[in-house]
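retry 2 of 3: previous attempt timed out while embedding tryptophan. Reduced batch size to 1 and resubmitted. Inputs unchanged:
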Amino acid sequence: MTSLRVLTGITTSGTPHLGNYVGAIRPAIEASRRPDVESFYFLADYHALIKCQDPAAVRESSKEIAASWLALGLDTDNSLFYRQSDIPEIPELTWILTCSAAKGLMNRAHAYKAAVQKNEESGADPDLGITMGLFSYPVLMAADILMFNSHKIPVGKDQIQHVEMARDIAQRFNHNFADLFTLPEAQIDDSVAVLQGLDGRKMSKSYGNTVPLFDSEKKLRKAINKIVTNLQEPGEPKDPASSTVFQVWEAFATPDQCEYMRGRFAEGIGWGDAKKELFELINAELHEPRQLYQELMSDGAHIESVLIKGAERAREKASALMKQVRAAVGISPIS
Ligand code: TRP
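retry 2 succeeded.
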Protein backbone atom coordinates (compact mmCIF):
# COMPACT_ATOMS: atom_id res chain seq x y z
CA MET A 1 0.00 0.00 0.00
CA THR A 2 1.34 3.41 -0.90
CA SER A 3 0.46 5.93 1.74
CA LEU A 4 -0.63 9.46 1.13
CA ARG A 5 2.33 11.79 0.76
CA VAL A 6 1.82 15.30 2.08
CA LEU A 7 4.45 18.00 1.62
CA THR A 8 4.79 21.65 2.45
CA GLY A 9 7.54 24.22 2.69
CA ILE A 10 7.96 27.17 5.02
CA THR A 11 9.84 30.15 3.64
CA THR A 12 12.51 31.19 6.12
CA SER A 13 11.96 34.92 6.03
CA GLY A 14 10.16 35.71 9.26
CA THR A 15 9.29 34.71 12.81
CA PRO A 16 6.31 32.36 13.20
CA HIS A 17 3.20 34.05 14.56
CA LEU A 18 0.00 32.77 16.10
CA GLY A 19 -1.75 32.80 12.71
CA ASN A 20 0.94 30.54 11.21
CA TYR A 21 0.52 28.24 14.19
CA VAL A 22 -3.23 27.85 13.90
CA GLY A 23 -3.38 27.84 10.10
CA ALA A 24 -0.38 25.73 9.19
CA ILE A 25 1.92 24.51 11.95
CA ARG A 26 -0.64 22.90 14.27
CA PRO A 27 -2.42 20.89 11.54
CA ALA A 28 0.93 19.86 10.04
CA ILE A 29 2.19 18.61 13.38
CA GLU A 30 -0.99 16.62 13.88
CA ALA A 31 -0.51 15.08 10.44
CA SER A 32 3.12 14.28 11.26
CA ARG A 33 1.86 11.72 13.79
CA ARG A 34 -0.57 9.93 11.51
CA PRO A 35 0.57 6.43 10.60
CA ASP A 36 -1.27 6.53 7.27
CA VAL A 37 0.42 9.71 6.05
CA GLU A 38 3.99 10.24 4.93
CA SER A 39 4.66 13.89 5.59
CA PHE A 40 7.45 16.10 4.31
CA TYR A 41 8.08 19.48 5.93
CA PHE A 42 10.99 21.63 5.01
CA LEU A 43 12.58 25.01 5.53
CA ALA A 44 12.41 26.71 2.16
CA ASP A 45 15.58 28.75 2.53
CA TYR A 46 16.27 29.00 -1.20
CA HIS A 47 12.82 30.55 -1.50
CA ALA A 48 13.70 33.00 1.27
CA LEU A 49 16.53 34.42 -0.86
CA ILE A 50 13.96 35.60 -3.40
CA LYS A 51 12.46 38.13 -1.05
CA CYS A 52 15.06 38.56 1.65
CA GLN A 53 18.61 39.69 0.96
CA ASP A 54 19.59 39.94 4.59
CA PRO A 55 21.77 36.90 5.42
CA ALA A 56 21.42 37.29 9.19
CA ALA A 57 17.64 37.42 8.89
CA VAL A 58 17.51 34.26 6.75
CA ARG A 59 19.77 32.44 9.21
CA GLU A 60 17.77 33.56 12.25
CA SER A 61 14.45 32.74 10.64
CA SER A 62 15.62 29.23 9.75
CA LYS A 63 16.59 28.66 13.35
CA GLU A 64 13.36 30.11 14.74
CA ILE A 65 11.14 28.12 12.42
CA ALA A 66 12.98 24.86 13.06
CA ALA A 67 12.92 25.46 16.84
CA SER A 68 9.21 26.30 16.72
CA TRP A 69 8.21 23.16 14.87
CA LEU A 70 10.33 20.96 17.12
CA ALA A 71 9.11 22.65 20.30
CA LEU A 72 5.52 22.14 19.22
CA GLY A 73 6.05 18.41 19.00
CA LEU A 74 6.75 17.61 15.36
CA ASP A 75 7.25 13.86 15.05
CA THR A 76 10.56 13.75 13.20
CA ASP A 77 10.65 9.95 13.14
CA ASN A 78 7.33 9.51 11.43
CA SER A 79 7.78 12.54 9.14
CA LEU A 80 10.65 14.02 7.15
CA PHE A 81 11.87 17.39 8.36
CA TYR A 82 14.71 18.97 6.41
CA ARG A 83 16.18 22.13 4.99
CA GLN A 84 15.76 22.66 1.25
CA SER A 85 19.37 23.79 0.80
CA ASP A 86 20.67 20.51 2.27
CA ILE A 87 19.23 18.66 -0.72
CA PRO A 88 21.45 19.49 -3.74
CA GLU A 89 19.14 17.37 -5.88
CA ILE A 90 16.51 20.12 -5.57
CA PRO A 91 18.40 22.82 -7.51
CA GLU A 92 19.48 20.12 -9.94
CA LEU A 93 15.89 19.13 -10.60
CA THR A 94 14.95 22.81 -10.75
CA TRP A 95 17.21 23.28 -13.75
CA ILE A 96 15.94 20.24 -15.57
CA LEU A 97 12.35 21.34 -14.97
CA THR A 98 13.23 24.89 -16.03
CA CYS A 99 14.03 23.40 -19.43
CA SER A 100 10.54 21.89 -19.62
CA ALA A 101 8.58 24.76 -18.11
CA ALA A 102 6.92 27.16 -20.52
CA LYS A 103 8.00 30.77 -20.12
CA GLY A 104 4.42 31.78 -20.90
CA LEU A 105 3.27 29.83 -17.86
CA MET A 106 5.72 31.72 -15.63
CA ASN A 107 4.55 35.04 -17.09
CA ARG A 108 1.16 34.34 -15.54
CA ALA A 109 2.41 33.81 -11.96
CA HIS A 110 0.59 36.21 -9.62
CA ALA A 111 3.64 37.37 -7.66
CA TYR A 112 5.61 38.15 -10.81
CA LYS A 113 2.66 39.79 -12.53
CA ALA A 114 1.97 41.97 -9.52
CA ALA A 115 5.57 43.18 -9.48
CA VAL A 116 5.47 44.05 -13.19
CA GLN A 117 2.15 45.81 -12.80
CA LYS A 118 3.46 47.90 -9.93
CA ASN A 119 6.36 49.04 -12.10
CA GLU A 120 4.09 49.86 -15.02
CA GLU A 121 1.74 51.86 -12.83
CA SER A 122 4.60 53.98 -11.55
CA GLY A 123 5.94 54.50 -15.08
CA ALA A 124 9.13 52.55 -14.35
CA ASP A 125 10.83 49.90 -16.49
CA PRO A 126 8.55 46.84 -16.12
CA ASP A 127 11.56 44.73 -15.09
CA LEU A 128 12.75 47.09 -12.38
CA GLY A 129 13.88 45.16 -9.30
CA ILE A 130 12.61 41.85 -10.66
CA THR A 131 15.13 39.04 -10.33
CA MET A 132 15.28 35.76 -12.19
CA GLY A 133 14.66 34.25 -8.75
CA LEU A 134 11.22 35.82 -8.55
CA PHE A 135 10.47 34.84 -12.12
CA SER A 136 11.57 31.21 -11.67
CA TYR A 137 10.11 30.83 -8.17
CA PRO A 138 7.34 28.45 -9.34
CA VAL A 139 9.89 26.09 -10.92
CA LEU A 140 11.87 25.81 -7.70
CA MET A 141 8.63 25.12 -5.89
CA ALA A 142 7.71 22.50 -8.49
CA ALA A 143 11.05 20.79 -7.85
CA ASP A 144 10.35 20.77 -4.09
CA ILE A 145 7.03 19.11 -4.68
CA LEU A 146 7.84 16.71 -7.52
CA MET A 147 11.07 15.50 -5.93
CA PHE A 148 9.10 13.55 -3.33
CA ASN A 149 6.16 12.54 -5.52
CA SER A 150 3.82 14.31 -3.15
CA HIS A 151 0.08 13.94 -3.55
CA LYS A 152 -1.25 16.70 -1.34
CA ILE A 153 0.22 20.13 -0.76
CA PRO A 154 -1.38 22.00 2.17
CA VAL A 155 -0.97 25.68 1.33
CA GLY A 156 -2.64 29.03 1.70
CA LYS A 157 -4.88 30.29 -1.10
CA ASP A 158 -2.09 32.47 -2.50
CA GLN A 159 -0.08 29.33 -3.30
CA ILE A 160 -2.72 27.36 -5.21
CA GLN A 161 -1.51 28.70 -8.52
CA HIS A 162 2.02 27.50 -7.81
CA VAL A 163 0.84 23.98 -7.08
CA GLU A 164 -1.14 24.01 -10.32
CA MET A 165 1.99 25.11 -12.14
CA ALA A 166 3.91 22.23 -10.58
CA ARG A 167 1.23 19.92 -11.89
CA ASP A 168 1.51 21.44 -15.33
CA ILE A 169 5.29 21.15 -15.36
CA ALA A 170 5.07 17.53 -14.20
CA GLN A 171 2.58 16.69 -16.93
CA ARG A 172 4.83 18.13 -19.62
CA PHE A 173 7.85 16.24 -18.34
CA ASN A 174 5.93 12.99 -18.05
CA HIS A 175 4.66 13.41 -21.59
CA ASN A 176 7.99 14.40 -23.13
CA PHE A 177 10.36 12.05 -21.31
CA ALA A 178 9.13 9.44 -18.88
CA ASP A 179 6.25 9.08 -16.50
CA LEU A 180 8.24 9.87 -13.37
CA PHE A 181 6.23 12.46 -11.50
CA THR A 182 3.08 12.20 -9.42
CA LEU A 183 0.64 15.02 -10.18
CA PRO A 184 0.23 17.07 -6.99
CA GLU A 185 -2.89 18.79 -5.71
CA ALA A 186 -3.21 21.79 -3.45
CA GLN A 187 -4.99 21.06 -0.20
CA ILE A 188 -7.02 23.86 1.30
CA ASP A 189 -8.48 22.64 4.53
CA ASP A 190 -11.68 24.46 5.44
CA SER A 191 -11.78 22.89 8.89
CA VAL A 192 -8.53 24.63 9.77
CA ALA A 193 -9.17 27.94 11.42
CA VAL A 194 -8.01 31.16 9.81
CA LEU A 195 -6.96 33.22 12.75
CA GLN A 196 -8.03 36.82 12.92
CA GLY A 197 -5.44 39.39 13.82
CA LEU A 198 -5.63 42.14 16.43
CA ASP A 199 -7.69 44.33 14.09
CA GLY A 200 -10.11 41.60 13.04
CA ARG A 201 -8.59 41.06 9.58
CA LYS A 202 -6.81 37.79 8.80
CA MET A 203 -3.66 37.61 10.92
CA SER A 204 -0.84 38.27 8.47
CA LYS A 205 2.61 39.79 8.45
CA SER A 206 1.52 42.06 5.60
CA TYR A 207 -1.19 43.66 7.78
CA GLY A 208 1.09 44.11 10.79
CA ASN A 209 -1.62 42.65 13.07
CA THR A 210 0.19 39.54 14.25
CA VAL A 211 0.82 38.05 17.67
CA PRO A 212 4.22 36.37 18.01
CA LEU A 213 4.04 32.68 18.81
CA PHE A 214 6.85 32.40 21.34
CA ASP A 215 7.45 35.81 22.77
CA SER A 216 7.20 36.20 26.56
CA GLU A 217 3.98 35.55 28.45
CA LYS A 218 3.81 39.24 29.16
CA LYS A 219 3.92 40.14 25.48
CA LEU A 220 1.24 37.58 24.70
CA ARG A 221 -1.02 39.11 27.35
CA LYS A 222 -0.33 42.59 26.03
CA ALA A 223 -1.10 41.56 22.45
CA ILE A 224 -4.39 39.95 23.47
CA ASN A 225 -5.36 43.10 25.35
CA LYS A 226 -4.92 45.00 22.10
CA ILE A 227 -7.56 43.00 20.22
CA VAL A 228 -10.10 45.49 18.94
CA THR A 229 -13.58 45.26 20.51
CA ASN A 230 -16.72 47.38 20.41
CA LEU A 231 -17.70 49.77 23.18
CA GLN A 232 -20.20 47.54 24.97
CA GLU A 233 -20.02 47.67 28.76
CA PRO A 234 -19.77 44.71 31.15
CA GLY A 235 -23.25 43.33 31.74
CA GLU A 236 -24.43 43.95 28.17
CA PRO A 237 -24.94 40.71 26.24
CA LYS A 238 -22.38 40.42 23.44
CA ASP A 239 -22.46 38.86 20.00
CA PRO A 240 -19.87 36.11 19.60
CA ALA A 241 -20.19 36.01 15.80
CA SER A 242 -18.93 39.56 15.34
CA SER A 243 -16.22 39.43 18.02
CA THR A 244 -12.54 38.88 17.26
CA VAL A 245 -12.05 37.83 20.89
CA PHE A 246 -14.52 35.02 20.32
CA GLN A 247 -13.09 34.01 16.93
CA VAL A 248 -9.65 33.65 18.45
CA TRP A 249 -11.15 31.75 21.39
CA GLU A 250 -12.70 29.28 18.95
CA ALA A 251 -9.33 28.57 17.35
CA PHE A 252 -8.00 27.29 20.67
CA ALA A 253 -11.05 25.95 22.47
CA THR A 254 -12.74 22.55 22.61
CA PRO A 255 -16.44 22.49 21.63
CA ASP A 256 -17.35 22.54 25.36
CA GLN A 257 -15.16 25.56 25.97
CA CYS A 258 -16.84 27.28 23.00
CA GLU A 259 -20.27 26.65 24.55
CA TYR A 260 -19.02 27.98 27.84
CA MET A 261 -17.77 31.21 26.26
CA ARG A 262 -20.99 31.64 24.28
CA GLY A 263 -22.77 31.55 27.65
CA ARG A 264 -20.37 34.11 29.12
CA PHE A 265 -21.01 36.40 26.13
CA ALA A 266 -24.77 36.06 26.62
CA GLU A 267 -24.34 36.94 30.29
CA GLY A 268 -22.45 40.04 29.28
CA ILE A 269 -18.87 39.23 30.23
CA GLY A 270 -16.73 42.40 30.17
CA TRP A 271 -14.12 42.65 27.42
CA GLY A 272 -11.33 42.82 29.96
CA ASP A 273 -12.43 39.56 31.56
CA ALA A 274 -12.98 37.88 28.22
CA LYS A 275 -9.45 38.79 27.18
CA LYS A 276 -8.09 37.52 30.47
CA GLU A 277 -9.75 34.16 29.92
CA LEU A 278 -8.53 34.12 26.32
CA PHE A 279 -4.97 34.68 27.48
CA GLU A 280 -5.25 31.80 29.97
CA LEU A 281 -6.59 29.50 27.26
CA ILE A 282 -3.87 30.26 24.72
CA ASN A 283 -1.14 30.30 27.29
CA ALA A 284 -2.14 26.86 28.57
CA GLU A 285 -1.47 25.49 25.08
CA LEU A 286 1.75 27.41 24.52
CA HIS A 287 3.33 27.43 27.95
CA GLU A 288 5.31 24.20 27.68
CA PRO A 289 6.30 24.57 24.03
CA ARG A 290 7.50 28.09 24.82
CA GLN A 291 9.94 26.72 27.39
CA LEU A 292 11.12 24.05 25.03
CA TYR A 293 11.53 26.69 22.32
CA GLN A 294 13.80 28.76 24.56
CA GLU A 295 15.90 25.69 25.30
CA LEU A 296 16.18 24.79 21.63
CA MET A 297 17.10 28.34 20.65
CA SER A 298 20.11 28.11 22.93
CA ASP A 299 21.09 24.72 21.50
CA GLY A 300 21.59 25.36 17.80
CA ALA A 301 23.75 22.24 17.49
CA HIS A 302 20.80 20.07 18.40
CA ILE A 303 18.54 21.73 15.84
CA GLU A 304 21.27 21.31 13.24
CA SER A 305 21.65 17.61 13.97
CA VAL A 306 17.91 17.04 13.57
CA LEU A 307 17.96 18.82 10.22
CA ILE A 308 21.00 16.93 9.00
CA LYS A 309 19.39 13.62 9.89
CA GLY A 310 16.24 14.68 8.05
CA ALA A 311 18.26 15.69 5.01
CA GLU A 312 20.04 12.33 4.91
CA ARG A 313 16.74 10.50 4.81
CA ALA A 314 15.30 12.90 2.25
CA ARG A 315 18.35 12.58 0.02
CA GLU A 316 17.97 8.82 -0.18
CA LYS A 317 14.66 9.41 -1.92
CA ALA A 318 15.86 12.42 -3.90
CA SER A 319 18.96 10.76 -5.29
CA ALA A 320 17.02 7.68 -6.38
CA LEU A 321 14.56 9.84 -8.30
CA MET A 322 17.27 12.05 -9.81
CA LYS A 323 19.00 9.02 -11.23
CA GLN A 324 15.86 8.26 -13.21
CA VAL A 325 15.32 11.90 -14.17
CA ARG A 326 18.86 12.29 -15.44
CA ALA A 327 18.63 9.13 -17.47
CA ALA A 328 15.26 10.19 -18.89
CA VAL A 329 16.65 13.46 -20.27
CA GLY A 330 19.86 11.94 -21.60
CA ILE A 331 22.31 12.86 -18.89
CA SER A 332 23.98 9.57 -18.20
CA PRO A 333 27.36 7.86 -18.49
CA ILE A 334 28.60 7.15 -22.02
CA SER A 335 28.65 3.43 -22.52
N1 TRP B 1 6.29 29.30 -1.55
C1 TRP B 1 5.69 28.81 -0.37
C2 TRP B 1 5.19 29.99 0.49
O1 TRP B 1 5.70 31.08 0.36
C3 TRP B 1 6.66 27.99 0.43
C4 TRP B 1 7.07 26.78 -0.33
C5 TRP B 1 8.25 26.57 -0.96
C6 TRP B 1 6.27 25.63 -0.54
N2 TRP B 1 8.25 25.36 -1.57
C7 TRP B 1 7.05 24.75 -1.34
C8 TRP B 1 4.98 25.28 -0.16
C9 TRP B 1 6.54 23.53 -1.74
C10 TRP B 1 4.47 24.05 -0.58
C11 TRP B 1 5.26 23.19 -1.37
O2 TRP B 1 4.32 29.80 1.29
